[in-house]
């Protein structure tokens, strides 16, 4: 009795373990595949494919076929050795039954092979079986075709049996995801295709195909130099600074393969993999690589005399601009460590100094052999460092500027402020020259009009660094009068004025000052332009006095003058052409150019073209001719009738 009893308990004990194991997976699938949404659904595919990849890593498989079946099940087939079909000693079950239906069935190749830990815990395909309503395996091995079938969450439906003969070897798995677990069981061709492409890129020579029986779409991946192809994909159409640099080595059974390149681009793109699984949160292999890179580049720069002893060393942030790299390591089962819950970050400490050592040794050699490219990398790093420094100073300068403006009025220069506090109603006149400034001050309506006279030429913001720009007194006064900051820190609602009106002489100097001011506003207060807050005052060109009369009137354009003369052929008139604002007294300036009731303002609505950077560079570049025709073509001045306010100006204010 005891004997039978003993036998029974060991069998049931064992089967309890099996049932309990798979039951645990069905109870908390998220523990094993992360989630049961579409991401978790596709994890099922990666688990099975990774088993075939392992067979390829072991060197016995060079082709994997994946099929999305019409019934939305997945078939994966490899031409590896085929799962062993003998009895599994400890359990007395067939090896396939153990492999596919017992959790944590140990490393597939014991402890010493390379195993992708595709899933979150590398529990392999038994998890997929547990989460499938159907799970069928076909094994080609030892000249025979063997099959074993599971169903309804991993229950054995048909034990391993021989079904025929074959000359090939390999393993085929077909599984139907369990609708009781996955709400959405629709597989995505592109998701699977991208991942298979990545696997093919990481395993040079391995051919991987994907067929979608629902749409008959088909794709094949096979790359002779997978990592170099991978780098080309990452490079996109960025121009290359160096050709791909290949670094390979093995130490303590850890295989390291790195390909890196520099492009003209500014971003960094480093991808890490451990046993073919992407380590999206980095880890010791990436750290080691970066340390090795920095060491080699500094040694080279010093040897070349580019970096003197006193110079600051290049650091990894100087060397990241334009860097693309793929670091893939193959680590034996017994050494693989991850940080945190997911497999996103490699923790194996040996990988850090092994990657550092292999990177710096191989890179030292490459730099010697490719001196011209090596010098380009160092130059790029030094440039990156200077640019970062400049940007930091510029941001700091802008912050200081904004705070300074808020504190002392000295920075306001020669501003004569408006009395009213209605920011949207208030107007700021930027007036060319002190004399016109004087007339504008006494002619204005002080309730809502502020005057800032600009002495000489405004500095060209297109060609001046922000630090120098801020040294310019005029620019300073403009910034602090508007009081809304600068550049990225500019806040439109902080502006002290609803209108900024440029009032210059109607000659080329005046036009040039206008474009320089426009440049400045476009570069550093673009929102003013976009929100159409910038205007150009239109002083009259002519003062007409009919002979013998005290009366006179103004005309604004040549066209108006010729129209008038044609309309009054016999009238004798005296024509005075205004050369500058200074020729008008305060009252005339008010009446003709500042009084909202009678003035003509041009609202600068620069069309979109100007808002594009390079077009603006044309406008502000050195080629005057190009600039002139560009202004004619692109800067549309729309004449705005003076519709804003009816202004019942009281005479007192006028001559204030
Ligand atoms: C479509 C999914 O699962 N392929 C696999 C093999 C090959 C061997 C193996 C698998 C358990 C502990 C060994 C064959 N011959 N594709 C797959 N191909 N598992 S899974 O062994 C598992 C055993 O050690 C295999 C010699 N050694 C290993």
Summary of the model, kept short:
The chain is an alpha+beta fold.
Commentary on this structure:
With 656 residues, this protein is an alpha+beta fold. It has 4 domains: 211 residues, Histidine kinase-like ATPase, C-terminal domain (Heat Shock Protein 90, 2-Layer Sandwich), CATH 3.30.565.10; 160 residues, 2-Layer Sandwich (Ribosomal Protein S5, domain 2), CATH 3.30.230; 202 residues, Rossmann fold, CATH 3.40.50.670; 36 residues, no CATH class. 39% of the residues lie in helices and 21% in strands. It is built from 20 helices and 23 strands. The strands form 4 sheets. It has an 8-stranded mixed β-sheet. Strands 16-15-17-18-22-23 form a 6-stranded mixed β-sheet, sandwiched between helices. Strands 10-11-14-12-13 form a 5-stranded mixed β-sheet, sandwiched between helices. Helix 3 packs parallel to helix 6, helix 8 runs parallel beside helix 9 and helix 10 packs across helix 13. It starts with a helix and ends with a helix. The N terminus and C terminus are likely disordered.
Runs in which pLDDT lies below 50 for 5 or more consecutive residues are 1-17, 106-112, 118-122, 638-656
Oligomer: single chain
Q: Work out the count of structural domains.
A: 4
User: CATH H level of the largest domain: which superfamily?
Assistant: Histidine kinase-like ATPase, C-terminal domain
CA-atom Rg in angstroms = 39 Å
Count of DSSP strands? 23
What binds here, in terms of ligands, is:
ligand 28F
User: In what order do the strands lie side by side in the largest sheet?
Assistant: 6-5-4-7-2-1-8-9
Q: What gross morphology would you assign?
A: elongated
Estimate percent helicity: 25-40%
CATH C-level name of the largest domain:
Alpha Beta
The biggest beta sheet is recorded as: 8 strands, mixed
> How much of the sequence is in beta strands?
15-25%
Quote the average pLDDT: 84
The helix count comes to 20
* CATH fold group of the largest domain: Heat Shock Protein 90
- In CATH, the architecture of the largest domain is 2-Layer Sandwich
How far is it from the N-terminal to the C-terminal residue, by CA?
122 Å
Structural class: alpha+beta
């Amino acid at each position: 009795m005891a004997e039978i009893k003993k036998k029974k308990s060991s069998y049931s004990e064992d089967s309890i373990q099996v049932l309990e194991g798979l039951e645990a997976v069905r109870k908390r699938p998220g523990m094993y595949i992360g989630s049961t949404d579409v991401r978790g659904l596709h994890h099922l595919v990666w688990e099975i494919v990774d088993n075939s990849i392992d067979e390829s890593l072991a060197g016995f498989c060079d082709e994997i076929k994946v099929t999305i079946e019409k019934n939305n099940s997945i078939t994966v087939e490899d031409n590896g050795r085929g799962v062993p079909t003998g009895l599994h000693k400890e359990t007395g079950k067939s090896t396939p039954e153990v492999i596919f239906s017992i959790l944590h069935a140990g490393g597939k190749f014991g402890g010493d092979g390379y195993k992708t830990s595709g899933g979150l815990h590398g529990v392999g395909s038994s998890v997929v079986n547990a989460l499938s309503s159907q799970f069928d395996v076909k094994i080609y091995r030892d000249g025979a075709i063997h099959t074993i079938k599971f169903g309804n969450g991993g229950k054995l439906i048909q034990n391993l049996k021989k079904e025929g003969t074959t000359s090939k070897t390999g393993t085929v798995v077909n599984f139907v995801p369990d609708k009781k677990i996955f709400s959405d069981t629709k597989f995505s061709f592109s998701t699977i295709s991208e991942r298979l492409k990545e696997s093919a890129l990481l395993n040079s020579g391995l051919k991987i195909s994907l067929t979608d029986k629902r749409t008959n779409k088909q794709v094949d991946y096979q790359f002779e130099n997978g990592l170099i192809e991978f780098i080309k994909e990452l490079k996109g159409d960025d121009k290359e600074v160096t050709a791909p640099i290949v670094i390979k080595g093995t130490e303590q059974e850890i295989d390291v393969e790195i390909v890196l390149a520099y492009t003209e681009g500014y971003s960094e793109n480093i991808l890490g993999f451990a046993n073919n699984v992407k380590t999206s949160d980095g880890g010791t292999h990436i750290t080691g690589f970066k340390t090795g890179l920095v060491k080699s580049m500094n040694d080279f720069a010093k040897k070349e005399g580019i970096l003197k002893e006193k110079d600051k060393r290049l650091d990894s942030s100087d060397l990241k601009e334009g860097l693309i790299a793929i670091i893939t390591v193959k680590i034996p089962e017994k050494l693989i460590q991850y940080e945190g819950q997911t497999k996103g970050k490699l923790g194996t400490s040996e990988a850090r100094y092994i990657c550092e050592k292999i990177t710096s040794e191989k890179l030292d050699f490459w730099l010697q052999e490719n001196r011209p490219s090596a010098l380009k990398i160092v130059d790029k790093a030094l440039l990156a460092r200077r640019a970062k420094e400049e940007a930091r100073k510029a941001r700091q300068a802008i912050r200081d500027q904004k705070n300074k403006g808020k504190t002392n009025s000295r920075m306001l220069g020669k501003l004569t402020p408006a009395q009213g506090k209605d920011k949207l109603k208030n107007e700021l006149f930027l007036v060319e020259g002190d004399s016109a400034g004087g007339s504008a001050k006494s002619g204005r309506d002080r309730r809502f009009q502020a005057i800032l006279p600009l002495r000489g030429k405004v500095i060209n913001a297109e060609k001046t660094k922000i630090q120098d720009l801020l040294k310019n007194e005029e620019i300073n006064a403009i910034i602090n009068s508007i009081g809304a900051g600068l550049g990225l820190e500019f806040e439109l609602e902080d502006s002290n004025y609803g209108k900024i009106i440029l009032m210059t002489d109607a000659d080329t100097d005046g036009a040039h000052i206008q474009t320089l001011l426009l440049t400045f506003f476009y570069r550093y207060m673009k929102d003013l332009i976009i929100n159409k807050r910038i205007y150009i005052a239109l002083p009259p060109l002519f003062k007409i006095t009919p002979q013998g009369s005290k009366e006179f009137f103004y005309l604004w354009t040549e066209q108006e003058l010729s129209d008038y003369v044609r309309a009054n052929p016999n009238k004798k008139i005296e024509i005075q052409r205004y050369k500058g604002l200074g020729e008008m007294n305060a009252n005339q300036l008010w009446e003709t150019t500042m009084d909202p009731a009678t003035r003509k303002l041009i609202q600068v609505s620069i069309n979109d073209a100007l808002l594009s950077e390079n077009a603006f560079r044309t406008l502000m570049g050195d080629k005057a001719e190009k600039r002139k025709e560009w202004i004619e073509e692109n800067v549309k001045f729309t004449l705005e009738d003076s519709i804003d306010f009816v202004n019942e100006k009281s005479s007192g204010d006028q001559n204030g």
